[in-house]
């Protein structure tokens, strides 16, 4: 099986550890274990429970109480309709491994997390990309989606909220997409890793699994709950899908780690406290970036509505990978080049991993832009 290199992950692996100002990170400022336990108000009890735990396999399909708490994040999902996984990336893999057969017709939004369209391609599917455009606020265009599905479709892949753009598909558009899938008899897979981080309360959206009967969604503890180090995610969907998914999961995962699940339980029991913390960070941070963008004549963006990432357009005639490497070597500021999303002259910024790092990173980026201007680097046009 041939598979394309995973652009974003290879980029992060190569440079992230040496970054001085990491404004590529996509998690909300990560919690320490002590911070998590302090939030719970039961620190000593939880520590005693964990230290007395036998380090053996956990519940094969996920801790029952954990699945109960995960199901509470949805309107209609029961605990038995959830499978846990080692992170959201494994949840996406399991979902695609279950839904995609060679020759299947798949339509995926782009730009998005590359796994969502490169894996189906590697599994032998015919993949068409629904290109999201800034003039449409990086939202799916229904006419274009209908055109791509005209000759039939087996799976439509969404990412809501979107990474890298921060675009948010509202309920009305979600229902339109679901109706098209229903007419075609297609499944929908929606990566919802950032769901819950809507920047305005009135913009909160339901899960696709609560809208469409043949929807499968994935989530994790990484982004919304600031616990990427737990490596714990999940997939939720209809009973027949979960049964098939469990058969395939046996080949990739015996169980998730018991300590990971125990700490995830603590987080979900205290989700309101964590969400209040994280929404405050996200909302303040996006304002910082928006003010910076307005101060930079040659930088544009569609302001994100959710999540922790934004997509910055720059009009300097310099390829995005070269731009980011040069910036990194100049002052240690670290961004993700648009090349990783097949979009030149774009940069992905992650703005929720620490206010001071964000401010210093934006200062470093501004300083680098001044250098490009002094060097008379030419302009390109946003098409």
Short characterization:
By secondary structure, this protein is α/β, with parallel strands linked by helices. Helices cover 40% and strands 15% of the residues.
Uncertain segments: none
Counted up, domains total: 2
Q: What name is given to the CATH topology of the largest domain?
A: Aspartate Aminotransferase, domain 2
Sheet with most strands = 7 strands, mixed
* CATH-scheme architecture of the largest domain: 3-Layer(aba) Sandwich
Q: How big is the Rg?
A: 21 Å
What letter string, H or E per element, gives the SSE order? HEHHHEHEHEHEHEEEHHHEEHEEEH
Helical fraction equals 40-55%
Number of distinct beta strands = 13
Mean pLDDT figure = 97
Write the SSE topology.
Blueprint: H1 7-15, E1 21-22, H2 33-40, H3 43-51, H4 64-71, E2 82-85, H5 88-99, E3 105-110, H6 115-122, E4 126-131, H7 142-148, E5 155-159, H8 171-184, E6 187-191, E7 215-220, E8 233-236, H9 239-249, H10 258-269, H11 271-295, E9 299-301, E10 309-314, H12 320-331, E11 333-334, E12 336-337, E13 346-350, H13 355-374
Parallel strand pairs: 1-11, 3-4, 3-5, 5-6, 6-7
Antiparallel strand pairs: 2-8, 7-8, 9-10, 10-13, 12-13
């Amino acid at each position: 099986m041939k598979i394309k290199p995973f652009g974003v992950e290879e980029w992060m692996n190569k440079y992230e550890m040496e970054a001085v100002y990491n404004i590529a990170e996509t998690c909300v400022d990560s919690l320490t274990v002590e911070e998590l336990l302090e939030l719970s108000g039961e620190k000593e009890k939880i520590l005693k429970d964990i230290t007395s735990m036998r380090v053996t396999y956990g519940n094969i399909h996920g801790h029952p109480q954990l699945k109960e708490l995960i199901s509470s994040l949805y309107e209609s999902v029961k605990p038995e309709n959830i499978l846990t996984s080692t992170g959201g990336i494994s949840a996406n893999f399991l979902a695609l491994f279950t839904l995609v057969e060679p020759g299947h017709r798949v339509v995926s939004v782009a730009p998005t997390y590359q796994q969502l369209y490169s894996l189906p391609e590697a599994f032998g599917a015919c993949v068409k990309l629904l290109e999201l455009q800034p003039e449409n606020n990086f939202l799916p265009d229904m006419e274009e989606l209908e055109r791509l599905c005209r000759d039939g479709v087996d799976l439509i892949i969404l990412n809501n909220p979107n990474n890298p753009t921060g675009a948010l598909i509202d309920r009305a558009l979600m229902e339109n997409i679901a109706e098209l899938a229903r007419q075609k008899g297609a499944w929908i897979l929606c990566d919802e890793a950032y769901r819950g981080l809507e920047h305005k309360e009135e913009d909160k959206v339901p899960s696709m699994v609560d809208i469409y009967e043949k929807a499968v969604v994935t989530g994790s503890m990484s982004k919304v709950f600031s616990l990427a180090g737990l490596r714990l995610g999940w997939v939720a969907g209809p009973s027949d899908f979960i049964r098939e998914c469990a058969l395939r999961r046996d080949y990739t995962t015996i169980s998730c780690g018991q300590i990971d699940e125990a700490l995830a339980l603590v987080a979900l029991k205290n989700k309101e406290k964590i969400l209040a913390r994280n929404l405050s960070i996200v909302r303040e941070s996006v304002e910082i970036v928006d003010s910076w963008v307005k101060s930079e004549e040659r930088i544009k963006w569609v302001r994100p509505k959710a999540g922790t990432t934004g997509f910055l357009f720059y009009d300097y005639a310099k390829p995005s990978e070269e731009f980011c490497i040069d910036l990194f070597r100049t002052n240690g500021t670290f961004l993700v080049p648009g090349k990783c999303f097949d979009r030149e002259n774009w940069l992905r910024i992650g703005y929720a991993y620490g206010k001071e790092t964000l401010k210093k990173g934006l200062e470093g980026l501004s300083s680098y832009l001044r250098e490009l201007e002094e060097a008379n680097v030419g302009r390109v046009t946003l098409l």
